[in-house]
């Protein structure tokens, strides 16, 4: 029946799991497992000098399960019967009755199959008990479920009452799976890695094992009259040492040493458990070893988890540093205290300073004095609000030249959502600034030439053409008097022509004022804007409500002219295209900026589509504002009117931007 179960398993998906060992190693495992299945129980029987002794730990099934986990499932039908033959021979030599062996074999079969199948199902390859989750899965199948089920059959083979026998069998097998199997699995999966560690690590391990064996010998082999429960505490530092420094391999190996010496002492009437001799009820010793083993195995799993997590973090940081140091941009990180914690190699090459001087607040030492305050204010405000930021400032390069830097920072958050600091990148944009400055210079010169041309045309219209049209009107008026006796239609024709010439003269004069406002030059922005609104209102027969507040005197000519041209363009476009009759113009000033707002309640338009179609008026307004560091924003939608907002900072506009200090 057992063979049939194993063959069914061998045909299941477990048989397709990859081999853990090559063919030679696999047969070596089969042979060693079979040999140990006979030799270890035989050795246990030889150590039990008193025939009434009940051995607290039965390692046979634990060794067999270890072997099963190392080979293919297809070899289980061979390995399990061979190992059971070894169990039987050892039991017969120890004088175990055949009636008891007849119960042990099915009980061990159930225990081995449950443990091996459960562990093969839960783990890919050799189980590694280096995490709490892995240890919990292992403990459920191998430490609890397998021994629990097998004990119901094996208990019949114990020559005492059934439940006492069940308890002895269960705890004996449980203790074996807590100590023997983890130790064997750890050396199989971690032994080679341990051998490649440093010599100092090996020496530390030897000192640990030697010290633990020495202390265990003292604790568990003292004469009966010298035993004391306080001696148990001597083991704790060594077990902690093994679990925290050597993980589950160190903990399981140390527990094997403690278990072996404690059982030897109890069997021979020495140490804290000498009062159990003859060892017919090993429950106190078993409970001590089980709970001590589980405690330190869990501690080792936690330590391994922490070490693996720390290793993952270290590897992640190393990958980040590798990527950061090869990136074409400067990268920095800062902690929750706003202090710089890391800058990459391009940053160090740019500044020419060592890493130690850039950490903390050292990075700010290279910022240009004119930009430092603004830079730190932006940086601090972003930290307080946990928001991304973008700023431009000048930093001293390793050759002493100040270069423009674009710095973009974003907040970092842990997996739990807690704030972890900032990470940012910096890019040298000096060349872009130079190009923008050159483009702005060209744009400024074009606009200046445009304004000069407008001024010349306005003066020509006002001083020449407008005067000549006025003289023509005077001459027609003089010519009209001698012809007063002519026919009425001729007289009416001359009157009409004179009115048209007069209107033409007014239009030319208005055009001259729009091209070049002398009021803007001599009376200021507010007066010129108010006059323009009034003239346009009278000319187009619409209502324009002009408001102004806190506009400072002495506005630089560049700003005044820019805002006036934006007003002209925006208001004329609104009157021409909005189909509205009411318009509002607001000119307001603060200590930092001047804002101009032109709004209407007309039909509105899709301003993004207008920008995509490269509307000359919108582009002209935006370019003019850009030359004085201003901003243009438009709010409009079909059927919802339009609002044009222009903002200009109140500072003198220099002829050049002052690139690179």
Could you please describe the fold and organization of this structure?
With 661 residues, the protein is α+β, with helices and mostly antiparallel strands. The protein has 4 domains: 2-312, no CATH class; 327-428, PAS domain (Beta-Lactamase, 2-Layer Sandwich); 429-516; 522-661, Histidine kinase-like ATPase, C-terminal domain (Heat Shock Protein 90, 2-Layer Sandwich). Helix content is 62%, strand content 11%. The chain contains 20 helices and 10 strands. The chain has helices at residues 2-10, 23-47, 60-70, 76-93, 98-122, 132-154, 162-195, 199-220, 236-267, 283-326, 345-351, 355-358, 369-385, 430-480, 488-515, 518-523, 525-540, 557-577, 607-612, 616-627, and strands at residues 330-334, 340-343, 389-396, 402-413, 419-428, 543-549, 582-589, 593-600, 631-636, 642-649. The strands form 2 sheets. It has a 5-stranded antiparallel sheet with strand order 2-1-5-4-3, sandwiched between helices. Strand 1 (330-334) and strand 2 (340-343) form a beta hairpin. It is elongated and about 150 Å long.
List the helices and strands and how they pair.
Blueprint: H1 2-10, H2 23-47, H3 60-70, H4 76-93, H5 98-122, H6 132-154, H7 162-195, H8 199-220, H9 236-267, H10 283-326, E1 330-334, E2 340-343, H11 345-351, H12 355-358, H13 369-385, E3 389-396, E4 402-413, E5 419-428, H14 430-480, H15 488-515, H16 518-523, H17 525-540, E6 543-549, H18 557-577, E7 582-589, E8 593-600, H19 607-612, H20 616-627, E9 631-636, E10 642-649
Parallel strand pairs: 6-7
Antiparallel strand pairs: 1-2, 1-5, 3-4, 4-5, 7-8, 8-10, 9-10
Helix pairs in contact: 2-3, 2-4, 3-4, 3-5, 3-7, 4-5, 5-6, 6-7, 7-9, 7-10, 8-9, 9-10, 14-15, 14-20, 17-18, 18-20
């Amino acid at each position: 029946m057992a063979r049939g179960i194993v063959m069914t398993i061998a045909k299941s998906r477990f048989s397709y799991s990859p081999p853990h060992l090559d063919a030679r190693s696999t047969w070596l495992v089969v042979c060693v497992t079979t040999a140990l299945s006979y030799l270890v129980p035989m050795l246990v029987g030889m150590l039990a000098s008193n025939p009434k002794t009940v051995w607290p730990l039965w390692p046979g099934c634990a060794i067999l399960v270890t072997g099963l986990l190392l080979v293919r499932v297809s070899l289980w039908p061979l390995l399990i019967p061979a190992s059971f033959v070894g169990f039987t021979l050892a039991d017969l030599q120890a004088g175990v009755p055949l009636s008891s062996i007849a119960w042990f074999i099915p009980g061990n079969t159930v225990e081995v199959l449950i443990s091996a199948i459960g562990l093969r199902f839960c783990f890919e390859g050799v189980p590694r008990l280096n995490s709490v989750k892995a240890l919990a899965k292992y403990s459920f199948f191998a430490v609890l479920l397998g021994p629990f089920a097998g004990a119901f059959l094996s208990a019949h083979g114990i020559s005492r009452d059934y439940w006492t026998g069940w308890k002895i069998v269960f705890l004996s097998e449980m203790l074996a799976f807590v100590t023997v199997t983890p130790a064997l699995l750890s050396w199989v999966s971690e032994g080679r890695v341990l051998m490649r560690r440093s010599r100092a690590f090996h020496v530390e391990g030897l000192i640990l094992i030697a010290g633990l064996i020495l202390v265990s010998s003292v604790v568990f082999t003292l004469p009966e009259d010298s035993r004391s429960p306080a001696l148990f505490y001597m083991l704790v530092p060594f077990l902690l040492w093994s679990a925290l420094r050597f993980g589950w391999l160190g903990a399981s190996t140390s527990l094997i040493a403690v278990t072996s010496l404690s059982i030897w002492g109890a069997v021979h009437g020495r140490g804290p458990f000498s009062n159990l001799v003859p060892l017919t009820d090993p429950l106190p010793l078993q409970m001590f070893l089980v709970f001590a083993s589980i405690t330190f195995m869990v501690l080792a799993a936690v330590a391994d988890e922490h070490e693996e997590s720390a290793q993952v973090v270290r590897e992640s940081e190393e990958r980040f540093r590798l990527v950061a140091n090869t990136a074409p941009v400067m990268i920095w990180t800062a902690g929750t205290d706003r202090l710089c914690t890391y800058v990459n190699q391009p940053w160090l090459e740019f500044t020419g300073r060592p890493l130690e001087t850039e950490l903390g607040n050292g990075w700010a030492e290279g910022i240009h004095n004119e930009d430092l305050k603004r830079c730190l204010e932006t940086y601090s405000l972003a930290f307080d609000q946990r928001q991304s930021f973008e700023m431009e400032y000048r930093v001293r390069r390793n050759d002493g030249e100040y270069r423009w830097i674009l710095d973009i920072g974003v907040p970092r958050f842990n997996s739990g959502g807690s704030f972890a600091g900032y990470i940012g990148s910096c890019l040298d944009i000096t060349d872009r600034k130079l190009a923008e400055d050159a483009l702005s210079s060209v744009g400024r010169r074009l606009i200046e030439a445009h304004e000069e041309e407008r001024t010349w045309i306005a003066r020509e219209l006002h001083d020449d053409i407008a005067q000549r049209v006025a003289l023509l009107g005077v001459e027609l008026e003089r010519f009209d008097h001698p012809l007063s006796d002519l026919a009425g239609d001729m007289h009416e024709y001359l009157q009409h022509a004179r009115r048209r010439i007069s209107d033409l003269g007014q239009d030319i004069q208005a055009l001259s004022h729009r091209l070049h406002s002398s009021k803007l030059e001599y009376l200021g922005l507010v007066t010129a804007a108010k006059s323009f609104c009034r003239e346009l209102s009278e000319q187009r027969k619409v209502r324009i409500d002009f408001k102004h507040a806190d506009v400072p005197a002495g506005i630089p000519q560049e700003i005044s002219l820019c805002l006036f041209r934006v007003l002209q363009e925006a208001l004329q476009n609104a009157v021409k295209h909005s189909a509205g009759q009411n318009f509002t113009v607001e000119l307001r000033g603060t200590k930092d900026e001047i804002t101009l707002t032109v709004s209407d309640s007309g039909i509105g338009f899709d301003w993004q589509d207008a920008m995509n179609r490269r509307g000359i008026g919108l582009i002209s307004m935006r370019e003019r504002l850009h030359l004085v560091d201003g901003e243009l924003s438009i709010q409009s939608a079909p059927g919802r009117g339009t609002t044009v907002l222009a903002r200009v900072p109140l500072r003198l506009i220099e002829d050049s931007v002052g690139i690179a200090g």
